[in-house]
Structure formats: C-alpha cells, structure tokens
Amino acid sequence: LENGRRLEFTVLAKAIVSVLGFLLLAAMLACSVVALRWRLTLGSHAAPLLLLPSWRDMVRFVLLGVVAPFVVFVLWTRLLPFSGHAYSPQYAWHRTLAELLTLASALLLLPAWLAARSFRRRCLELDLAPPPSLPKVLRWWLILAGTLVIAGFLVPLGGARSVQIGTALAGAGGVWVAATVLCTIVLALLASRPKGRALGTLSRSLIPVLALATLVLSVAGHPILRAQERHLLRTDEILWVGDEPGLTRIENELTQRLRKATLKAMAENPPPNRQAQEGR
Predict the structure, then answer these.
(1) DSSP helix, strand, coil percent of the chain (3-state; round to 5)
(2) pTM of the model
C-alpha cells in the first residue's frame, strides 16, 4: 500500500510541475506585456533596458530559487512522518495541498525575488533609477497567505470535517498568493510615468530568469519524477509482473476466477439443445 500511495503522489507532483511550467510561461508573458506597455508609452529614447545577470547570479537564482525548494520538498515529503504524503489523501489531503501550494509559491516567487534584488543593485551601480519595492500592503497579503497555508497544514488529522477545514484554509492561502501576484502586475501596468522605465527594465530583465527556471524544471524535474514513477511501479508486486507486455497480477487472477466461474456455470446449466440431444 505504501508504494501505491507514493505512486499517487508522484503522479500528482508531475501534474503540479506541468502546471508550474505553464504558470512560469504566463509570468514571462505578463513581464513582456509590462515591458511593451512602457516601451510604447515612453518611446524609443527612454525604452526599458535589458540587464542580463552574470552567470554567477544565474547559478545562484537556479540553486536557491529552483533546486533548493524542490530538494526541500522531496526531503520533507519522504523523511518526515507528519507530512501529508505519509498518509492517504482521504485522510490528510489538506496537508498535501499545503505542501504543494508551498512548493508552487516558492518556485514562482523565489526566483523573481532574488532577481529583483540583484537588478536593484545593478541599477544603483549603473546610476539608474531602481525599481520600486513591493508595497507594504502586498507584503502583508503574502504574510497572510503564508499564515493561512500553515494553518491549513496544522489542522489535526481526523475525519472528513478536519480535511475540509484544512483544505479551505490552505486553498484560501493559495488564492491570496494568486491575488497578490495579479495586483503586482496591475500596479506595474498602472504605475506613474517616472517609475515606468524602472518597472519596464525589471520586467524585461526577469524574462531570462523565468525562462531558465522553466528550463530547469523541464530538464530536471520531469525526468526525476518519471524515474521515481517507474521505480515505484517496478517495486509494486501487485501492479508489476515484468518487462514484457501483458496483464497485471490482479488482472490475471481476475481472469482466471471469471474463467473458472464461467466453466462451472456452463457445466451446471448446459444449453437446452444439448439436453434434448442427450434425451434422444
């Protein structure tokens, strides 16, 4: 049963990674829209710049913003006994949801935050106006979202009522994170003209970082999860019967039982024409 449960969560993690890739692409599109908006507004003489980070910064973005959250997620879900992945989804789905939302938020926000800090330093070095910081209201929104996700995770394990309460709290935290991101994009589009070039430069410079994060997830995340899925299938004595194509053990046993039951029923109840021939 443990292998089957881990297999379910592995398939779910693959779906989450695919969704994250789509969200990163959407974030790149949003950054492109913000950069294009300020380029058209300010004209070519004050168009947003493209500040490419150094290779050291790119490595740091990948390690701290993509690899570290993924490794922490794997260790948390595999080693800790109170993780939601240690129980059936029907019993601890709220903890599993909180863990997945935390992973998704970290992979979306950490690379952008690290890149924004680096670009702000680059702007100061080049005597350019730095991009404005995130408003305090949105910071408090993120804190509230994190609090809701943690509260959803900490709901005690129990019946369906506990799962519903924890799922509602964690889901509300996820919705709050999405609302914060959307508000940030809207504020970047509606900012005042003096801040436009800095925001356009930041948005344009974030695109390579988000593209690299998407590439790392595709190149490393999916193969690791596929390899784990194959390993769990091979170690499951119920589902896996060998490398050759064929039915699983459960399907073979069910087929044999149905065959025996059919032959027994035919022997006990022969067809009418056969009974008539035997009577003659």
Answers:
(1) 80, 0, 20
(2) 0.75
